[in-house]
Amino acid sequence: MAAVGAAPLLPGLLPTTAHAASAARPDFPLVDAGAAVAVFVDAVDDPAVIRAAGDLQADIERVSGVRPELLHTLPDRAAGLVLVGTLGSSPVIDKLVDDGRLDVSHVRGRWEASVTQVVEHPVPGVERALVIAGSDRRGTIYGVYDTSERIGVSPWYWWADVPVERRDTVTLPAGRFLRREPSVRYRGVFINDEQNLTTWSHRTQEPDKNIGPETYKRIFELLLRLKANYLWPAMHPYSDFFNKYRENPELADEYGIVVGSSHPEALLRNGVHEWEPWAAEHPNADGSLPVYDYTVNPAVISDYWRARARQNAAYESSWTLGMRGLHDSALETKYATTIPEKVVVMNDIIADQRRILTEEVGAAVEPQIFIPYKEVLELYNAGVQVPDDVTLIWPDDNHGNMRQLPNDTERARSGGNGIYYHLSYWGRPKSYLWLDTTQLAKVWQELRRVYEHGVDRMWIFNVGDLKSIETGLSFSMDMAWDVDRWGPDEVEDFLAEWEGRQFGRRYGREIAAIRTEYYRLAAELRPEFIAPGILSVIHHGDEAGRRMAAYDALLERVRAVAAKVPAEYADAFYELVEYPAHGAYLMNLKYYWADRNALAVRQGRGAGANRFADLALAAHADEQALTLRYNTQVAGGKWDGYINPYPSQIPKAPGRPTVTRVPRTETSGLGVAAEGNETGVARPLLFSSYTRDRRFVDVFNTGFLTLDWAAEAGASWVRLSASGGSLTEQTRVWIDVDWERAPEGTLDTSVTITGGGGRSVEVPVRVVNDGARARRRARGFVEANGYVSIDAAHFEQRVARGGAHWRVVRGLGRRTGAVEAVPSTAASVTSDFASRAPELRYRVRFSSTGTFPVTVFRLPSLDERAYRRVAVALDDQPAAVLTGQAVATGNRGDAWARNVEDGVEKLTTTVTVAAPGEHVLRIFMVDAAIAVDQIVVDTGGLPVSYLAAPESHHPVFNPEPSYEPGLDVPGQ
């Protein structure tokens, strides 16, 4: 972004053919030779437009240091002028259109569209003008903020401290730019679980309030800069409710923001704060307080809703219909106990609310929305009658999986359909409130799916405290504006472009790669979900340690970029890149060391057990220091109280891990634990000439005094990373095979560890060496070490059938990408799979025979009206249909809960291998929009682990499987 106009095109901002035709025209100077052109906006235009023009004035000053004039009357003479206006509300703009000087054929009558165009001699006395014209007030506002971003002012300039590069000359290309109307009409956020935002707002913005007008001004501006137009404001007990301060709805209208309310807040009423005072002022005849139950107190509740409808009737609002309990609790109906009875009550509630809106606001007021969230979805499916002009807002399962999408009848509704989607969540089975951890490719997949189902009226994203969701929110808003802009291979391209706009193009691609890996690791296990014992520390080369090594490599890349970006970008880089990556690393690291500590205690280690305890607690202290820096040093302490993994009133991230210390003894003793064994060496170390494995043996001290030890391989072609020495705690010895020297065949040997007064432990080693020639001739995936593991995106062939096919979505799932059956609206296939169903084929070479479990790792999408199925077959054998969880139960500990905690659902059947050799494993679509991540066949040696086994050898996709060691113990 060193040169004006060098930034990528902004989302939804399209150059027209006129741009190419006018390439020779000189750029339009906003600032030149210390002077800025004035910004004109007619005084009769909408106040929201006039206010946004003031932001453009400020943005030009941010870039150049020169503040342009903001005019409401045209100058007599000017070399240049910025003309801002709305069609039908700006006489100057309307005259340009009438005179044929401004083409608005793709703007007039559209929703929030705009055109930006240089016009020569637009009005008498003005030589050139940069005209920003919108179809409506927000269309004009977005045109204004487009201009700001094109000259280098990020939407996150304030909220993420992205610096504005200063330059003396500021110009824009003379070409015509068109912003067509958005893919989704209402696009917005829900500020929710906002304790940290409340703390920060009270400390730094409004000491006499808990989120008030000054904070909402900042939120409104950010939303508009992101091309959003809609807000559900903060609603919990620790924040002030939105309508407590009359400035809030007034300001929202002045900014052009549509304010609505969440699923438990009917007709803009905040039940957490407002019901009890209302009930106290409207007691029952016997003096008791009315309860929030429509079957008990319908009149009092109706009046309660009516008062707010009357109060906010003048503002552009969104009206939530229906009813739930107070503070996000379930609907209470004392005198309606069955589902059919509750359906009748809900129908009465909606009819009453519609009557109130007609009488207080107007019969045609829109949008009106109905949100079938949690238990209300059950009532809706049981027969609740929602008027046709009301927008149905479909919720996800709170973990990024849409529960249900509209059928043909619902898609035809005049009110249309919307979604309520979580990028942050408090609730069962686990909460994720700390970091932005939802994989962007997952967001892309689900949003594409909902759009294909005709859901285009309203998208609301739960963003928690707002800050920490910067990247995810930006991507979601980009999708909402132009859902077709990014394809299944292009999510990382979004990141490269977005990061380039924040930090400069030269860093965009590398930061995008960092963020992609950050999201991938979170897809394996969110840092907020980490807990003792989830990941294996004994299998697959130390599964948890290998994951930590990946985090360590990620952090090194972060540090490398941090050392390069200019100093003025340091705060923004810390907020948007470094803190999330480093924080997630430390959250995982402290539990890795705690798991190693617990294992060490079980193994009888001495000093080494205490070393792991120290490392776990040190990682926790480092994590606390990292957050303290964010709150007290970054941006001069601007974010004091905002970033907090451990808030007092909402769910916390995993805190200080529990560790065990071993009392010191003045002894020493030899201990040995081989990979694959929690204690001892009973399970042999397995090596294959295809995967060319590395395995570890832990040599440790059972006491605290120095121990001498030695290791000796039983064959000259077995290599050891260390052959002996002295230790107080422990050391990890890595073992591999010199394949050039090893004989062919199945070979049994051992590694002998001695020490501690002559004690000797023999570690069994089994090597299967088919030779270099067989390895070179192998086709497809090769069985080794008792299993075959396949990344689903590494198929040999895919076959489209019946108008449906499998596509790879890069950056989705636990590896590099997953494979999804599309279009999401395709009909299910329930028979004759080989001739009717889209198919994936994988060539597999088996050395074993028998009937073996095969597990398909699928991403846990839902469909509460149907099924989530996929079929598996080997060769021409009959296909087995695997049925996944289709319903979000909202429980803890059941199948749905496990799926969303793990990010995958493991579906298992069996295949029969009758003869060794090459076979074809086949995956068939049964239901559309099912996504497959990995496939694992257990041929008898697969250990239990959290992640799938490392991918098997494949001559193309995985010719040299990586078995790099995990994280080293510092100082050893």
TrEMBL record:
The signal peptide stretch is 1-20
* UniProt name for this protein: Glycosyl hydrolase 115 family protein
> Pfam families from the xrefs?
GH115_C, Glyco_hydro_115
The segment(s) forming the Gylcosyl hydrolase 115 C-terminal domain are 780-951
InterPro entries noted in UniProt: GH115, GH115_C, GH115_sf, Hex-like_dom2
Q: Per the database entry, which stretches of residues form a coiled coil?
A: none
**Keyword annotations:** Hydrolase, Signal
**What are this entry's molecular-function GO terms?**
hydrolase activity
